[in-house]
Structure formats: structure tokens, C-alpha cells
Design a protein that fits this description.
Layout lengths: L1 H12 L15 E2 L3 E5 L11 E8 L7 E2 L8 E9 L10 E7 L19 E4 L9 H11 L7 E8 L2 E10 L27 E5 L9 E3 L7 E6 L7 H18 L17 H14 L9 E5 L9 E2 L27 H4 L10 H5 L3 H15 L5 H14 L1 H10 L17 H22 L10 H5 L4 E4 L6 E10 L2 E7 L4 E7 L2 E7 L6 E8 L4 E8 L3
Parallel strand pairs: 2-8
Antiparallel strand pairs: 1-4, 2-3, 3-5, 5-6, 6-7, 7-9, 8-9, 10-12, 10-13, 11-12, 13-14, 15-16, 16-19, 17-18, 17-20, 20-21
Helix pairs in contact: 4-7, 8-10
Length: about 550
């Protein structure tokens, strides 16, 4: 049995020196879930995928996991390959994997409590020595009411050798529990069916090997068909989404670009652009706007405008890049083309043009103030970082014995801490300074009253994840003042109740209640709104 072999493998290989970049380290137990990989003697490469064994040990929160424990989560084969572009330069590789059945067909699997799917990523935090920059960003995005990849820190043993801390992540994908939009099929060639179900991204063309299209206004802005991929789309479907993006850019450059009916708002979900802008600027992300920049469009019948997100790839953000002034806590990332002339791909002109609209400016300022009063408050940020760093404290020591890079420059570090705590403290310090700079320099004026538009806007809200283990977020389409949120069972019995005051999102934790169907109810003072939520416990 593989379970019995795993522990023997670790001690058999533990005396080997791998290289001056990786030091032998063993794993006996961890407070993190443990993933065991057996490649059957094969080498994992960028392409093609190979079939290997994967077993996951997760005895639950607060419990210790041992490499000799039975597999409590996934226990079977997966296909796997190395993923990433520039990140492939690092000795600690990231992987993409898909669960498969006994004859090699892909299957959906619920992994570490995340909703069932078949596209997963094992991301290797290497230049990010805090080990949390991506997780931090996805946490912020989810708190803002938008889907972003769920993540779990894990430790990996491959072929008996300890490989360090990884992040299990959901791949950005069209799915009910990920980017929840309509699915487009080969039969969707006209009418409303043609108008939605697209996830595209602005990215480097390196290694894509796929069909792309470029901006009509900047040949150094490259769009890729992400889901469906280019080979899955018909020419008429590619033409539709290409022309839609072109229409958005044309409207944005028109003299009436700020007109609510004929300007950019006709094509773009303004709130998503505001939230995306704030997170990109908060991170001063070196690749921001121009690489791994996702957006999607649903059908017109479902309000299908160009929507920014999900957030992705923040390992070189928050002061962790030493070029093009990305390390600085001042300045604008959307001005990258001017700051860093000669670098490609470009940041689209969208972001500077949007800020020419006073209404948009004011909305940016208001949204930032709301965020700073809640989970982007410095105390909230520091508390979250400290909680995750404390959770990783034991495992990070093994990770940096395996990968002895503390105190050593790794492309493209700006700050080089001697200890893990140094790296965490630097991240907190950088975020504090960046926050204050944005406080003082974001354009616009926020008048703290409810606009007529907001008064007339019907309340709607978003629950994520759903299904859930009981820990989930609720995001609202407008600011809720003096409201109430409740959770009831199918008999109408109240299990949870709390007040909502000046909030656009809240986090609920009702972990421990029985699996089943429940209802989230929101009262805004006059009306009641309800959504079904499914609780799933192991």
C-alpha cells in the first residue's frame, strides 16, 4: 500500500543533498494538510501531462496530520504538469492537476472542502517569502463580494521527498462554484445565446500557443480566450467577444465616454472595474492590468457587461518586485507604460481614461473609504496576516530548510529578510504605508449620503462559497444601513442573526451545524430577501 511506503520513502531519501538551492528535509507531521504524490518513477514536465498517484491527509482543523495516517481526503490518480510562465525559472515548481478515474477519464472531486471540480493548481510560493501574498489578495477580493480562487496551504511529499509549502488553488474557470456565468456551446451562434459565457484575459503570449487578439488601440495589449479556450470557440463566437471588447474601447475613447447610456457604462460593469482598480493599485502589482488580468462576460439577458476579475497572480506585489518602481509605496501602477517604457505587454489605456470621469472618481473614493473602514483597515489587515503567519509558523521552518532562500536574493525581490518574521513584518509595514498613500492621493470626493440611484436600487446579494462548510461571505450590490442578516433552517427556525450597518459585505461562520439546506435572509429595513445555501460537512 502507498500509505505504508510513504514514511519509508522519506527516511530513505532524507540523507540526499539535492542541490545548493534545495536542502534535504523530512516531514513527519504537520498542522497543515499533507499531500502525498507518487509519480511512479516518471518526471513531471511542462507538457505532456503524466498520470500519478495523489493522496491527501487532513484530519480537520486543530488536529495534527501525520504522513503515516490514512488518506482522509482525495485518494486516487491525477494527471499533472508543470504550470506557469516566468515562474518556471524557480526550482520549486507549480503544478496543474486533474483527478481521473481508473481508466484515465477526468472526474470532479471535492478537495479539502472546496466545491467539486476537476481543474486544480498547486501553486509554489517561492519569490514570495511571506508565503501569503496570493492568499491575501484572494481573501480581499472575496470579502469585496467577488469570486476569487479559494486556497488552502498544504505541505507536499513527492516520491518520499519533502517539497515544502504549497497553496492548493482553484483554477479560474466557468463553473457554478467559480466564475458563475452561462456556458457557451458550439450551438450558441446567434441571439442572446451568443452574447455570454466568455472568460478572457490580458496576458503575455509566452507559452500560450493559442489564438489571441490585440487591442485596436494598442498592439501591445494581448487578449487570450481563457474559458472556453480558442480551440473550443467557433469563429463567430471569437468575433463576437473580440468586437465587444473593441466596442467598449471605442466607447471609452469617444467624446461622450462618460455618458451613462452611450459611454463605457453601456459595455462595462463599473463596480467591478472600481474594485479591480483598487486591489491592483493597493498591491502596486508589477504585472497589474497587463498580465494574468482576467475579465468575463455573461449573456445580455443576465446583465452581461464586461466584468473585471477574478484577481490572479500577486506573488510579485505588495513591495516584492525590485524594478519599475513596483517596490515603492507611492505612485500608480496604471501609469506603468510611462514609468517603465520599453516593457511589454502594455497596460491598457482604460484605467487612466476612466479616471477622467468625475463620477467614476467619486465612486472610487467612496469605495476605498468603505474598504478602509472594514477589512482594509490596518488593524484588520495586520490581524489577518498575523493569524495566517502563526498558522504557518511550524511549516515555514521546514519549508525554508528545504528551500534555504531567507536572506538570499531571488528574482525579483526588493526586500530580503533574514527571517520569516522579517518578511511578514516587511509586508505589514509596506501595506500600512501604501494604504496611507492611497488615503491621501486617490482622486475624487465622497459625499457620505445615499444617492437617489442607491435608494432606488433593488437589494441583491451574493453568497460564496455555496455549498459551504459553514464559513462564507455575503456581498451586497449596495451599502446596507441598519439591516439584519439571519440564517434559518427549512422549518424557519433561526440559527443565526446579526445586524448590518454601513456594510457591503460580511463574513459568517456557522461551522458545526448539520449538513442540509438552509436559508440566508437579509432585511434592509423595509423588505426581506432570501437565498438558499447548502451546508456540506464531511
Amino acid at each position: 500500500m502507498k500509505i505504508n511506503l510513504t514514511f519509508l520513502y522519506i527516511f530513505y531519501f532524507s540523507f540526499n543533498c539535492l542541490s545548493n538551492q534545495a536542502t534535504a528535509q523530512t516531514l513527519d507531521s504537520s498542522n497543515l494538510p499533507i499531500i502525498i504524490l507518487d509519480t511512479y518513477g516518471q518526471t513531471i514536465s511542462d507538457d505532456p501531462r503524466i498520470t500519478i498517484f495523489m493522496g491527501i491527509i487532513d484530519n480537520g482543523p486543530g488536529n495534527i496530520n501525520h504522513v503515516t495516517d490514512p488518506y482522509t481526503d482525495y485518494n486516487g490518480e491525477v494527471t499533472i504538469e508543470i504550470r506557469g510562465s516566468t515562474s518556471q525559472q524557480y526550482p520549486k515548481k507549480s503544478y496543474a492537476f486533474t483527478p481521473v478515474d481508473s481508466i484515465g477519464n477526468k472526474i470532479n472531486a471535492e478537495i479539502l472542502g472546496m466545491p467539486s471540480e476537476n481543474d486544480w493548481i498547486l501553486y509554489a510560493p517561492y519569490p514570495d517569502k511571506s508565503l501569503i501574498r496570493n492568499t491575501l489578495t484572494y481573501y480581499f477580493a472575496n470579502k469585496m463580494g467577488y469570486y476569487s480562487s479559494r486556497t488552502k496551504h498544504v505541505e507536499i511529499v513527492r516520491n518520499g521527498l519533502y517539497r515544502g509549502i504549497y497553496e492548493l488553488q482553484e483554477k479560474v474557470k466557468n463553473d457554478n462554484d467559480r466564475v458563475d456565468i452561462s456556458k457557451i456551446t458550439p450551438s450558441d451562434t446567434s441571439g442572446d445565446n451568443l452574447t455570454g459565457g466568455y472568460i478572457i484575459k490580458i496576458d503575455k503570449t509566452t507559452g500560450s500557443g493559442a489564438d489571441t487578439f490585440v487591442s485596436s488601440y494598442d498592439s501591445e495589449v494581448f487578449f487570450q480566450f481563457h474559458d472556453p479556450e480558442d480551440y473550443e470557440l467557433l469563429p463567430i463566437q471569437k468575433d463576437y467577444i473580440t468586437n465587444y471588447v473593441d466596442s467598449f474601447e471605442t466607447a471609452l475613447l469617444s467624446p461622450l465616454f462618460a455618458d451613462p447610456d452611450s459611454g463605457f457604462r453601456k459595455f462595462a460593469d463599473e463596480n467591478s472595474f472600481i474594485n479591480f482598480f483598487l486591489l491592483q493599485e493597493f498591491g502596486h502589482t508589477i504585472d497589474g492590468y497587463r498580465s494574468s488580468c482576467f475579465m468575463y462576460k455573461d449573456k445580455d439577458s443576465k446583465g452581461g457587461k464586461l466584468t473585471m476579475g477574478p484577481m490572479w497572480d500577486f506573488n510579485l506585489s505588495y513591495g516584492n518586485a525590485d524594478y519599475c518602481q513596483a517596490f515603492d509605496t507611492i505612485g500608480w501602477q496604471y501609469e506603468f507604460n510611462t514609468v517603465c517604457q520599453g516593457y511589454f505587454p502594455h497596460v491598457p489605456f482604460w484605467w487612466s481614461k476612466l479616471l477622467e470621469d468625475t463620477t467614476y472618481q467619486n465612486s472610487v473614493q467612496c469605495r476605498w473609504k468603505q474598504l478602509r473602514e472594514s477589512y482594509l483597515h490596518s488593524d484588520s489587515i495586520n490581524n489577518w496576516i498575523d493569524s495566517i503567519a502563526n498558522y504557518l509558523d511550524e511549516s515555514q521552518q521546514r519549508n525554508f530548510i528545504k528551500w534555504p532562500i531567507l536572506g538570499i536574493y531571488v528574482n525579483w525581490n526588493y526586500y530580503i529578510g533574514l527571517t520569516y518574521q522579517d518578511e511578514v513584518d516587511y509586508l505589514k509595514m509596506w501595506l500600512e504605508k501604501r494604504s496611507k498613500w492611497l488615503d491621501n492621493n486617490l482622486p475624487g470626493n465622497c459625499i457620505p449620503v445615499i444617492s437617489n440611484t442607491e435608494n432606488l436600487m433593488p437589494l441583491s446579494f451574493y453568497v460564496s462559497p455555496n455549498p459551504t462548510n459553514g464559513n462564507f461571505y455575503i456581498g451586497f450590490n449596495s451599502l446596507i444601513r441598519n439591516g439584519v442578516v439571519e440564517v434559518t433552517n427549512s422549518l424557519g427556525q433561526k440559527l443565526y442573526s446579526d445586524k448590518i450597518n454601513n456594510q457591503r459585505s460580511i463574513e459568517l461562520n456557522i461551522v458545526g451545524i448539520a449538513s442540509g439546506i438552509y436559508f440566508v435572509k437579509v432585511f434592509d429595513g423595509e423588505n426581506q430577501f432570501s437565498k438558499k445555501i447548502i451546508i456540506q460537512n464531511k
